[in-house]
């Protein structure tokens, strides 16, 4: 299940690769309409917390959320983490992508969108997940694009340092 799936691009490509038991939830009627216009199956409109509440315990192998949790407040995040933990199967995985507050551009990413409520570092994300029962947390490095490297050089950050600081996207 993808939480905050937008128009369903990830779902579309997963289906193209042969995955059929996949669905997504997004709160935006416009995004769901876009998925319908693109003939992407499995995208539903609704609240992610309500959707998870209807799911049985230990019912998913994996849950994906790209650029979702930074839009939630502290209480909403705690509730979401607990619900995701509840619906994941043992050995299930939650793949999270969120801006890295520990990067040289962390605060810029945090405040570039006024709908961002929170920012996470590797440490804060690990603390959050472990406190809700997750037993293993892996922080993976995101690919650094050429425009990001150029901006980094302009503000005096060396590319080698970027590899160390931009990592931590989950």
Quick overview of this protein structure:
The chain has 170 residues and is of the alpha/beta class.
Helix and strand topology:
Layout: E1 2-3, H1 9-16, E2 24-26, H2 29-37, E3 43-45, H3 48-53, E4 60-66, H4 74-87, E5 88-97, H5 106-111, H6 122-131, H7 146-154, H8 159-166
Parallel strand pairs: 1-2, 2-3, 4-5
What's the CATH architecture name? 3-Layer(aba) Sandwich
Query: Which CATH class?
Result: Alpha Beta
Strand content: 5-15%
Order of helices and strands: EHEHEHEHEHHHH
Distance from N terminus to C terminus (CA atoms, Å) equals 17 Å
What is the fold-level CATH name, i.e. the topology? Rossmann fold
The biggest beta sheet, please?
Answer: 3 strands, parallel
**Count of the domains:** 1
Q: How helical, in percent, are the residues?
A: 40-55%
3D structure, described in words:
This protein is α/β, with parallel strands linked by helices. The strands form two sheets. The chain has a three-stranded parallel beta sheet, with helices on one face. The chain is globular. The chain starts with a strand and ends with a helix. 41% of the residues lie in helices and 15% in strands. The protein is built from eight helices and five strands. The protein has one domain: Rossmann fold (3-Layer(aba) Sandwich), CATH 3.40.50.150.
């Amino acid at each position: 299940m993808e939480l905050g799936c937008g128009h369903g691009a990830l779902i579309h490509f997963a289906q193209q690769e042969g995955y059929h038991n996949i669905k997504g939830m997004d709160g935006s009627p416009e995004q769901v309409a876009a998925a319908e216009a693109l003939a992407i199956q499995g995208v539903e409109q609704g609240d992610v917390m309500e959707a998870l509440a209807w799911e049985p315990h230990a019912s998913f192998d994996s849950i994906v959320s790209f650029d979702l949790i930074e839009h939630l407040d502290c209480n909403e995040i705690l509730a979401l983490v607990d619900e995701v933990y509840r619906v994941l199967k043992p050995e299930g995985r939650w793949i999270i992508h969120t801006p890295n507050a520990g990067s040289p551009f962390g605060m810029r990413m945090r405040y570039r969108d006024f709908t961002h409520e929170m920012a996470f570092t590797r440490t804060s994300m690990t603390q959050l997940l472990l406190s809700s029962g997750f037993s293993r947390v892996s922080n993976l490095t995101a690919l650094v694009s050429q425009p990001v490297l150029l901006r980094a050089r302009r503000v005096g950050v060396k590319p080698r340092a970027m590899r160390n600081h931009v990592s931590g996207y989950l």
